[in-house]
Amino acid sequence: MTEEITPSQTALFSAAARAAHPIVDQQPHLLRDEPAAQLCKLVTPSPLDFQLGQPEVGVLAAARLSACARSRYADASLSETRVDQVVVIGAGLDTTAFRLPSALDAKVWLIDRPGVLAWRTQLFDRAGLPDTTRHIAADLAEGFDVRLLGRAGVDLHRPVFVVWLGVSMYLHPADCRTFLGYLSELAAGSRLIFDYHLAPEFRDQPGAEYAKAVAAMAGHQGEPWQCSSTPEEMGKWLAEHDWQLQEDVDESSSVPEGFFANQEHLQPMKLVRLVQVMR
């Protein structure tokens, strides 16, 4: 039986944002993602064409900032922790495996819906890109059992580095809290990097405008945004499951000092928070 192919427009949107950033924005660049560019060029119409053709459009610029800042944040944390088991949840067209530190002999597992993983495999094959990652098919809306990781080869007795970016906002708040509990069963020393959206009353105007534009697109594609929180509330959710909070920062403050002064199209916005927690 041929596995159903399920393209993810939000995954394409994110990949195009990562690919376009070093082309249309000024240095210093947060990230370079050439594999993402190769994947996006296989799709017609490609969101990369919109990024390259209209880099000044606010929603496109904000997408570049968000996609690159969060990936850079996760890459930096992984480099510092040196954990060699990496799990990317809601992977889509994630390219973390291409940016692993050369000295880190790490294995990468990707979790997403079966159809999305099949689509990813198809695009990688067409692009001639080596995908060394291991795939785990799961629908997070139906819950998650960490034993799936063990069955896929993850050593659950050792620390795991989990990347869960661009996903929490699509879950119902109760499901987001529950999911943090599922992951709390990982071994001591495990780390989780994730992001969440600030509650509407805590957003500034650029953040509110971006949220309105992308939420409409995501909802139209059948992937509506549902979850937002405050740092105080998120801290309580994490404490419920004994996660040790290491950092909870505005996405815009995670970039290098002086970054925005050099940018023509990118501007800070208060919408996304980046979080690092530890078992």
Descriptive tags:
279 residues, alpha/beta, Rossmann fold, seven-stranded mixed sheet, 9 helices, 14% strand, globular
Description:
This protein has helices at residues 9-24, 34-40, 47-53, 58-81, 114-127, 147-151, 173-183, 205-220, 231-240; strands at residues 85-89, 107-112, 134-137, 161-164, 191-197, 244-250, 272-278. It is of the alpha/beta class. The chain has one domain (9-278): Vaccinia Virus protein VP39 (Rossmann fold, 3-Layer(aba) Sandwich), CATH 3.40.50. The model has no long low-confidence stretch (mean pLDDT 93). Helix 4 (58-81) crosses helix 8 (205-220). The protein has a seven-stranded mixed β-sheet, with helices on both faces. Strand 4, helix 7 and strand 5 form a beta-alpha-beta unit.
Task: Identify the CATH class.
Answer: Alpha Beta
Number of domains: 1
How many strands appear in the DSSP assignment? 7
Mean pLDDT: 93
What's the CATH H-level homologous superfamily? Answer: Vaccinia Virus protein VP39
Assign an overall shape. Answer: globular
Structural class: alpha/beta
Strand order of the largest sheet: 3-2-1-4-5-7-6
User: What are the segments in which pLDDT stays under 50 over at least 5 consecutive residues?
Assistant: none
Q: Please give the share of residues in helix.
A: 25-40%
Portion in beta strands = 5-15%
